[in-house]
Design goal:
single chain, mainly alpha, globular
């Protein structure tokens, strides 16, 4: 059952959903963990005057958690939007940031986001 279909969710269920799974889902989880931690690092590497890259990097981290929690059905449009955002926004952050040392990390996060996006689309969304 997907998280959006449930109303009262106990905290242990959320923690269990954040844990690594097995099979193909383990590959999804590894990509999402890498994207989350890289975007977290990129977010903290931004200066105080770089609000847009900071917010975009934080948004990608939050969307990685939402994707990991399996909020939407894999074939739902919301799932496609979340996965595409996980792919595109780190690359946008790499392009607009003034913190030059965070650019490689943002690009790597974008590459892993792209791997996750296309792997999830090819295996789980195509039907």
């Amino acid at each position: 059952m997907y998280l959006a279909q449930q109303i009262n969710i106990p905290m242990n269920e959320i923690i269990a959903r954040l844990a690594p799974r097995s099979g193909v889902e383990l590959l999804y989880d590894i990509c999402l963990y890498i994207v989350f931690f890289l975007c977290l690092i990129v977010m903290f590497m931004q200066s105080d005057k770089q609000l847009v890259p900071t917010i975009l990097a934080g948004l990608v981290g939050a969307l990685a958690v939402i994707a990991k929690l399996n909020v939407f059905d894999p074939k739902a449009f919301g799932s496609l939007v979340i996965n595409a955002t996980i792919f595109v926004f780190p690359i946008i952050v790499a392009g607009i940031t003034k913190a030059k040392r965070s650019q490689p990390l943002a690009i790597i996060a974008g590459v892993f986001g792209g791997v996750y996006f296309f792997m999830f689309w090819f295996i789980s969304q195509r039907g």
